[in-house]
């Protein structure tokens, strides 16, 4: 990473409050070039707190854009950080209030004397989804969008459900994080004396988001209401209304990568470009496992073309640029392997159209006798996080493969290069009304190491769609078909293509009440369909994703860090209790210890997530997150603490949720509330 100290423009920044509907203001930080001429404005709009949570990330990119002649603006969403109002209980980026606020901010920016009236909007995750949804509202000043690692469907592609099954790890983690961050107070250094009154107002309205998400397990009007466009069969932005130019960016290790393919296949080619690289859920200048790219340089070309009208050739490039590599790891000298594959051999390739005529679906027929699949409920505990930010991909898959029905296809002669969405069709016999099928596509190296390339799942009650649950007729044999996540991967000669099918995948998926029974997989009538790309010899036709491969950013502020008294805890710990059948995974979602910011703010944060299940009891599933955050300014003095506890259990009929919040101002408890709720089980 290269830290740039000199720019074409000197810059300045200031904190402002932007008025929005409801007689409220949103807190914003504006970086501007020192020039007497108006300039285009870039907007990053997110619920993340800009004065502490993202202060380093913001300082790396917003001053960089300002130094290249753009006003770069970071805005906190309503009810978060130092913005006014109360948070959206459901926490959806496509919610009506969030989008109305975004449009108000865009109109305000366009009306400032230092702005040309042309606005670009960008974001990662929630911010990227909101940028897409805002573009679907087509505010006139919004001319360009950069959407990074984000979903375009709040039900199926929003980290809450997969094939109708509850994405336990993602749903619970996101809800617990939203509860913790949503309960944190405004900072008196930025909000002044009213900070406490605003905090208490916020606390009185906060709700655990999981209560809303699990109350709508099927695709219903709740999800359509989170769409900015007219209600449709598929929730999500009304892409036909988008008028801004969209640069869609994803990573092969990010769960939302399919969004890029849908956008380049739906939007007019004169208004969209796609980029998918070897990254997890992060901006690509920090992309891991890598290689990372000069993402700020890449996006500057996008802004220059669509906000300044500079003909720089960015729209002459291929519609879709993707990294094609093997992305695998071999066993080390000790037989082990790292969960992060590391930058591997690969190349950037360009595709002129999507769907591409160079990609052909190839069916691999499954062979053999019918095989019973009754995976232990602990299958998947070594999968790694559903949404990794540091390149963690789950490591060697052999332990989970051993709990699955596996079908292999050798790669002989030429490499097999994939680009697109794999699918499976499975002929299943089920003896109970409910269950789930999980399919993993793996690359098996000559030494036996198995690397997960893509995963898909289906709640068998959702085999006819996610709008209604259809119980399986016990004893019946039916074909089911579902997609895996998109893949851009090359299987090398000497490797094997492995399809691993299991009936459980905890904690990614919440187990159905009948998953212990499993199913019988009938190979005859089952197949794996892979999107095989025509492989061309010779140099790539795609330009490297950035003029300079080395990432570049502004120099971030120096934030001091002190570890916890207990010392550094492993990011992930797997525990098996012999004799009890209990399997437990403990993960640390945030770095522990205290961060001391240059302005004197001290932030102490500790969190632990625990996922517990018994090997043969799907009703023993238990998700628990405990979070403690202290925000402290010794000079004021100001000292607040937020403690949250979120957990989900289940029985055969209901999800059982319990959440607790305790907030302190100094030693005084100013808020203490517990939510307990039972929600009937429909999905999965």
TrEMBL record:
Alphabetic keyword roster: Hydrolase
Gene Ontology terms for molecular function: dipeptidyl-peptidase activity
Biased composition (Basic and acidic residues): 566-575
Stored InterPro entries: AB_hydrolase_fold, CocE/Ser_esterase, Galactose-bd-like_sf, Xaa-Pro-like_dom, Xaa-Pro_dipept_C, Xaa-Pro_dipeptidyl-ppase/CocE
Region (Disordered): 320-354, 375-395, 531-598
Residues of the Xaa-Pro dipeptidyl-peptidase C-terminal domain: 300-529
Entry keyword annotation includes Hydrolase: yes
PANTHER family referenced in this protein's UniProt entry, alphabetically: COCE_NOND FAMILY, PUTATIVE (AFU_ORTHOLOGUE AFUA_7G00600)-RELATED (PTHR43056:SF10), PEPTIDASE S9 PROLYL OLIGOPEPTIDASE (PTHR43056)
Annotated Gene3D superfamilies: alpha/beta hydrolase, Galactose-binding domain-like
NCBIfam families for the chain: CocE_NonD
Protein name: Peptidase S15
Pfam families assigned to the protein according to its UniProt record, in alphabetical order: Peptidase_S15, PepX_C
SMART domains attached to this UniProt entry: PepX_C
């Amino acid at each position: 990473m290269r830290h740039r100290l000199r720019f074409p423009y000197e810059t300045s920044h200031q904190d402002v409050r932007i008025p929005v509907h409801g007689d409220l203001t949103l807190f914003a930080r504006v970086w501007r070039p020192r020039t007497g001429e108006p300039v285009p404005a870039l907007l990053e709009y997110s619920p993340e707190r800009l004065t502490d949570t993202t202060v380093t990330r913001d300082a790396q990119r917003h001053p960089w854009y300002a130094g290249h002649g753009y006003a770069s603006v970071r805005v906190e969403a309503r009810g978060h950080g130092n913005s006014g109002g109360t948070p959206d209980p459901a926490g959806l980026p496509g919610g009506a209030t969030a989008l109305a606020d975004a449009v108000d901010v865009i109109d305000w920016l366009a009306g400032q004397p230092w702005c040309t009236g042309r606005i670009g909007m960008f974001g990662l995750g929630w911010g990227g989804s909101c940028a897409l949804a805002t573009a679907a509202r087509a505010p006139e000043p919004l001319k360009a969008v950069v959407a990074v690692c984000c979903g375009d469907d709040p039900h199926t592609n929003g980290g809450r459900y997969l094939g109708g099954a509850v994405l336990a790890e993602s749903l619970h983690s996101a809800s617990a994080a939203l509860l913790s961050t949503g309960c944190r107070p405004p900072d008196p250094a930025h909000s002044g004396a009213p900070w406490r009154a605003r905090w208490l107002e916020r606390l009185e309205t906060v709700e655990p988001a999981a209560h809303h998400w699990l109350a709508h397990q099927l695709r219903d009007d709740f999800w359509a209401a989170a769409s900015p466009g007219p209600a449709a069969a598929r929730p999500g932005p009304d892409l036909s209304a988008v008028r801004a130019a969209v640069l869609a960016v994803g990573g092969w290790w990010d769960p939302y990568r399919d969004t890029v393919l849908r956008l380049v296949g739906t939007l007019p080619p004169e208004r969209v470009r796609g980029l998918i690289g070897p990254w997890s859920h992060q901006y690509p200048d920090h992309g891991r496992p890598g290689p990372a790219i000069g993402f700020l340089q890449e996006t500057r070309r996008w802004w220059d073309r669509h906000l300044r009208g500079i003909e720089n050739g960015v729209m002459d490039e291929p519609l879709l640029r993707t990294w094609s590599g093997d992305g695998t790891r071999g066993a080390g000298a000790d037989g082990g392997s790292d969960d992060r594959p590391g930058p591997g051999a690969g190349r950037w390739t360009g595709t002129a159209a999507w769907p591409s005529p160079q990609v052909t679906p190839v069916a691999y027929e499954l062979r053999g006798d019918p095989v019973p699949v009754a995976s232990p409920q602990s299958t998947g505990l070594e999968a790694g996080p559903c949404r990794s930010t540091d390149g963690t991909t789950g490591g060697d898959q052999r332990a989970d493969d051993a709990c699955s029905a596996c079908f292999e296809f050798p790669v002989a002669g030429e490499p097999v290069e994939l680009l697109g969405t794999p699918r499976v069709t499975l002929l299943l016999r089920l003896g109970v009304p409910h269950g789930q099928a999980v399919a993993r596509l793996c690359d098996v190296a000559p030494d036996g190491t198995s690397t997960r390339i893509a995963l898909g799942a289906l709640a068998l009650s959702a085999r006819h769609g996610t709008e209604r649950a259809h119980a399986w007729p016990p004893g019946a044999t039916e074909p089911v078909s579902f997609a895996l996540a998109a893949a851009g991967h090359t299987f090398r000669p000497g490797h094997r293509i492995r399809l691993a099918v299991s009936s459980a995948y905890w904690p990614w998926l919440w187990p159905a009440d009948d998953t212990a029974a499993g199913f019988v997989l009938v190979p005859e009538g089952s197949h794996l369909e892979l999107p095989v790309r025509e492989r061309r010899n010779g140099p790539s036709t795609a330009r490297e994703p950035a003029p300079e491969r080395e990432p570049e950013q502004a120099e971030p502020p120096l934030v001091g860090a002190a570890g916890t008294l207990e010392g550094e805890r492993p990011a992930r710990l797997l525990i098996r209790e012999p004799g009890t059948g209990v399997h437990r995974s403990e993960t640390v979602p945030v770095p522990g210890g205290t961060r001391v910011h240059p302005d004197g703010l001290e932030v102490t944060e500790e969190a632990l997530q625990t996922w517990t299940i018994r090997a043969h009891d799907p009703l023993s599933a238990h998700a628990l997150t405990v979070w403690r955050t202290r925000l402290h300014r010794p000079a004021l003095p100001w000292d607040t603490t937020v403690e949250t506890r979120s957990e989900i259990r289940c029985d055969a009929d209901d999800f059982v949720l319990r959440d607790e919040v305790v907030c302190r101002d100094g030693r005084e408890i100013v808020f203490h509330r517990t939510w307990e709720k039972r929600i009937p089980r429909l999905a999965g």
